[in-house]
Every structure is written in C-alpha cells, then in structure tokens.
C-alpha cells in the first residue's frame, strides 16, 4: 500500500543543485573532477507508476570506498562506477517528502544510499532505513551506527578474533572506522596504538579515544622503528586502513599467529602503480592470518551491532568524532580531503537543516 | 629402560664423513658454501650417561626450509640456524646402531631429524620415530608420509577449506608438497592446475599426477595472461609455494572469498631484497583469506593424515615422485638444486644402502 503520494497541487518543479562527476578519475582526485550543476530542477512528487520516495537530503557521507567508484569499473568489481555527467551517490540522511512505498511515509527521517543533490527520487530502496533512534544525532547513521560502524565491528570482532591483553595496532586510527576499532579494542582490554597524520589527530587518539599510545606517521622516517618503539613485544592484531609502506613495516613486527584485517588501503587508491609490499614472507614464519573484507558481507550482524553500540553510547563508554562541512557545493572538497587526511574524524556534509 | 648400548668390544672408532656449512650464506647458496669433511671419526656406541641413539644415516632429505637455516637467525626466528663449521642437519631415514633410549633398539629403522653425515649421535629424540610401515619405501617418511606430506595435508584441508568443484592453483606443483596438494584436490573433485619450471615437470603434472592442466611458468612472459587462460572463471584456492611475481599475478585472478595458503616463497629466499607484491588491494575487493603456516603447528594431525594417505596409496589413488641422488658428497648439489628447480619431485640423497 502506497502511503500518500501522487498528483495534487504541490506537484511543483523546484531547483535541484547536484554534484556531478565530469569524467572517470585517475590518480589523485581533484575538486575540478566535479562540478556543481545549479540548473537542474526536479518535482517533489513520486511519479505515478513508480515505487519509490522523494527525499530532501540533509546530510551526505564522504567515504574512502567512493574513490573506487570514480574509476571505470573493471570486470568483477564489487561496486558500480559513478556515471560521468550524473550526480554521484553515497550514504546520507534525508527526509521523506513523498512516498509511493509502503515502508515509508512523508516526514520520515531515513538513512541509506541517496544522491549528491538537494532532492532525490529513490527507487532502489534496499539500503534505505528509517532513523529509529532519535536520542543520538542523525549523522550517526552515516558513521558509528552506519556502514563505517558495522565495518569496524565486523572487521574487529569477526576477522581479528581479539582477546583481552593483546597488542592492537590501527592505521588511519582517527578515521570513521579506526576510532571505533580502537575503542572496541580498549573495551576488551587490549593494548591499543594508533597512527594518524597530524598532531591534532594524535591528541584525539590519546585524549578523546583513550588509546594507550598514538603517533604521527608523517613524522616517522622509519616506520619499523616507530612500531618497535610502541610494540616492543610485537603486534597481535593489525587493523589495516592504509596498506603500502605501513603494512610492510607492520609485517616486520607481527607476533606469531597474528591477524591482519585488511579494511582499506587508502595510501594506494590514487596511485597508478600500487607500491610493492616486500615482507610477506613473514606471513609464513609468524603464521599470520591476513584477510580482506567488505562490510556488505556482514549486514546480518547489523541488529546485534546496533544494540551493542547504542548501549556503549548510552553508558558513555564510546564516543564518536565527526567532521561536518556545510553546503552541497563543498561536497567535492570534503570528499577529496579524505585522501589528503584533511578530515578529523568521520567526514560528513550538511546539505540542509530540515 | 635402555635397550642394549654402552661399553663392549665394538666400541671402535670409525671414519665419519660430514657435510659442513662454511659460513652463513647470503644470496643464492652455492656448492662452495659447503665442504665435505673426510677426516672426522666417531664411535658407534652411545657414551655412558647419555640418553640417545647412534644411527647410520641411510637417506637425507633436501627441503626448501633449510635455506632459512643457512643464514644467521634473527630474533624470533621459528628455527635455529645451522652452525658454521658443524655438519648441517635435516630430516632423514637411518638405522639404529646403538641405543640408550627405551623407545629405540639396535636394528630399528627410524626417521626424523638427523645430521648430514654418515653416523650421528642423536640426543634430542623428540622428532625421531620408528618406520612403522614397511610396505612403502622408507624414503616416503621424508616425503609423502613425512614433513612435506603433512604440510600438504594441513595446508590444503585446514587452511583452504576446499570444496568439490572449486578451482585450485598450485605453484611449484611437482615439488615434494605441491604434487600431493594437487592430488588431494583432484580426489576431492576440484579443477586443478599447476605451474612448474620445465617441460618434464609439466608432463609429470598432467600425466602422472592427473592435474587438469599444467604450464611452464618460465615460458610465460605474462603470468596474468597464463592464469586467465587456465582459469577463465578465476581461482578459488591458491596454494603458494613460490611468492613473488606469481603471487602478484594470482591476486589479479582470485575469485570472491578465495583462499591463499602461503606455504613457501621459494622465489624469494635467496634475494637480498624480496620483490614487492603490488596487488594486495584485491584482498579487499575479493574478500580473500590469505594465511601463512608452518607444519610444526599441525603435528597433532599426523596420525589421521598417515591413515588417510596410506589408504590412498594402497588403493592406488595417489602416487609420489622422488628424485634420489646418491652419495653424501652430492648432498650440497642436491640441496642447492632445489633453488634452481633441478629436482624433479621430492629431493632425497641416498647415503648408504643398509
């Protein structure tokens, strides 16, 4: 049963600013790879015969995986490319303006995949969910309660088989995923060290997220030496968000039966030729379990995850830091900033207040 | 209770040729890194007060892991280095000449760790076992029924979670371990392709071990293209014995939820700077489980393994190819030949017939 929707005298045309990808990107993405289309218009009603919703986008989420969608998809890619000339898409929080879908009604606050534009007509609603918990900021549904949160949860608990007292290292540790992995590990009684790319982030890791130690990798000419300083006994668990040189240095410092969860390799996404990793022989001598993963395989854990994280939030055991830019026109800069580490915490763009 | 041993009139001194490591080796090992000491002597009795056995070495085993023992051990290494100036050691089959240990008596045929010399006084008997099954060649205890066999068994069944119909690729596939992994996979109903370094070995893989396909990697300028030819649908399981460029090409061809058991990286053992592996990002998009292992962690499976393999042998379901050199003085050449692929099948040296 469609609730509301269709026809009526508010079937008006409104302006609809959009963030458009000009063409497939190779190398480091630039702001000029996008443009803001200010000439678009849209209707705020779901057209008759279509099952879907029209939403007003309130917040949009910037996530590293989106880099992959900026290039032409290769056969067997796990995700579609953005379409040059069209608005890009990603996770967001939005308000339903009109619905021809039984699960949603006008006024609902929802989260899931939406377009990078002011208003979106959404017809593939598989990823769309109502915002159920209004005692937390709605932006949490793009971070701690959304895809990055479940990524941290699944990657840490399912892949790393963590145990109390183990030595845990996290790269890009103040990011949307890393900050949660570190806090999960601390709550379990692990010794936790994170790396990040600025003094501000290192302070955040130590003071806000209560990591045992943290360091600025940009100030460490010898990553192996840095890791040996913080892990004289070696590393049991490495939660890898960066790949490349850091992964190579970590391999030298893993303990026997260590585990490496490969969540991301952000240091490599923009390189034409990914760096070589030279120390894989340590996988054998240390009997290391290294596993890549995608959050898409773990959505069955979502209810359990949300329950646990909400109770951690309620008990004040976990905090979450967001970096909120303002205005749709600032979306490209915010997205690109992920790859230079400009964001401090989970990057979000506020598009509209209500 | 010591059985036999001690004193008596056959307490004579005999000549004892030995294979001595001159010094730690860097780069490719050469025959000249060893010398044959022809001046040594030994007594054929276990000295009073010592718990051990004196054995006559019949066969010695050449195994790739021994390369690691030729260099100076680094902290945390899983295995001791050979001692320059002393005879090297490894797996072998030997006859007990004298015993002061309750588990062994004169005349027993045994297998386990021994010295590269004609006669050895063995006092650490943890790895020493009696040859129980005399309906198979005793050399099998250094191969199909020994360390390489258990390596193949544990690596394939425990790490790869293989299923009927899956696509399996094995590098160094005609070697001591690879030939068994391929036959295990075939028995399970997998599609099996192996790579090796000569036409003779490729023929062996196809005709003797009944792999579905095999190719000579030395004749493939583009390993990625070769793998795409044999695995148009991609690879579910890669049993890696070589590392380096082949691993890099395999990563491009893995299927979603693929598994890589890292057993060895023989292409890298002799390099001062191991090659870089560039395609690890595929671990994420394909959600690949990659795990290094050492057979030492799986000796609890030995009884089950032997039972299964003996029945496969008895039923003619599995064959094993050995490459047997003759004479202790040919040990260095046989050992070094592993790193240039000179051996065809499991490399063994016959030291004495009885």
TrEMBL record, chains A, B:
Keywords linked to the UniProt accession: Oxidoreductase
An example Gene Ontology biological process: response to oxidative stress
Domain Enoyl reductase (ER) per the UniProt entry, residue ranges: 52-349
GO MF annotations in UniProt: 2-alkenal reductase [NAD(P)H] activity
Name this polypeptide is given: Enoyl reductase (ER) domain-containing protein
Organism: Lithocarpus litseifolius
Pfam families: ADH_N_2 (PF16884), ADH_zinc_N (PF00107)
Gene3D superfamilies linked: Medium-chain alcohol dehydrogenases, catalytic domain, NAD(P)-binding Rossmann-like Domain
InterPro entries: ADH-like_C, ADH_N_2, ER, GroES-like_sf, MDR_fam, NAD(P)-bd_dom_sf
């Amino acid at each position: 049963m469609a609730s509301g929707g269709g026809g009526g005298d508010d079937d008006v045309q409104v302006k609809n600013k959009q963030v458009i990808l000009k063409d497939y990107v190779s190398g480091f993405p630039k702001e000029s790879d996008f443009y803001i289309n200010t000439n678009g218009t849209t209707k705020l009603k779901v057209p008759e015969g279509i099952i879907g919703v029209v939403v007003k986008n309130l917040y949009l989420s910037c996530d590293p995986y989106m880099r992959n969608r900026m290039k032409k998809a290769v056969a067997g890619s796990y995700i579609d490319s953005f379409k040059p000339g069209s608005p890009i898409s990603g996770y967001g929080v939005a308000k339903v303006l009109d619905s021809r879908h039984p699960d949603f009604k006008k006024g609902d606050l929802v989260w899931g995949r939406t377009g990078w534009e002011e208003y979106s007509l959404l017809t593939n609603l598989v990823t769309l969910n109502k915002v159920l918990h209004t005692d937390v900021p709605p932006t949490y549904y793009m971070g701690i309660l959304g895809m990055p949160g479940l990524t941290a949860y699944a990657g840490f608990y399912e892949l790393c088989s963590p145990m109390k007292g183990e030595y845990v290292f996290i790269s890009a540790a103040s990011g949307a995923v890393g900050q949660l992995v570190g806090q999960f590990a601390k709550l379990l009684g692990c010794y936790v060290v994170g790396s990040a790319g600025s003094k501000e982030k290192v302070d955040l890791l130590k003071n806000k997220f209560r990591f045992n130690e943290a360091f600025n990798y940009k100030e460490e000419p010898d990553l192996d030496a840095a890791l040996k300083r913080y892990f004289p006994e070696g590393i049991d668990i490495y939660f890898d968000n960066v790949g490349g040189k850091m992964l190579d240095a970590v391999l030298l410092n893993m303990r026997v039966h260590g585990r490496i969860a490969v969540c991301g390799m952000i240091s490599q996404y923009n390189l034409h030729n990914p760096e070589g990793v030279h120390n894989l022989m340590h996988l054998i001598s240390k009997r290391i379990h290294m596993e890549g993963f995608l959050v898409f395989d773990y959505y069955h854990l979502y209810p359990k995850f949300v329950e646990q994280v909400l109770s951690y939030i309620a008990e004040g055991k976990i905090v979450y830091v967001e970096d909120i830019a303002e205005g749709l026109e600032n979306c490209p800069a915010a997205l690109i900033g992920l790859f230079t580490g400009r964001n401090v915490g989970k990057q979000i763009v506020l598009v509209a207040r209500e």
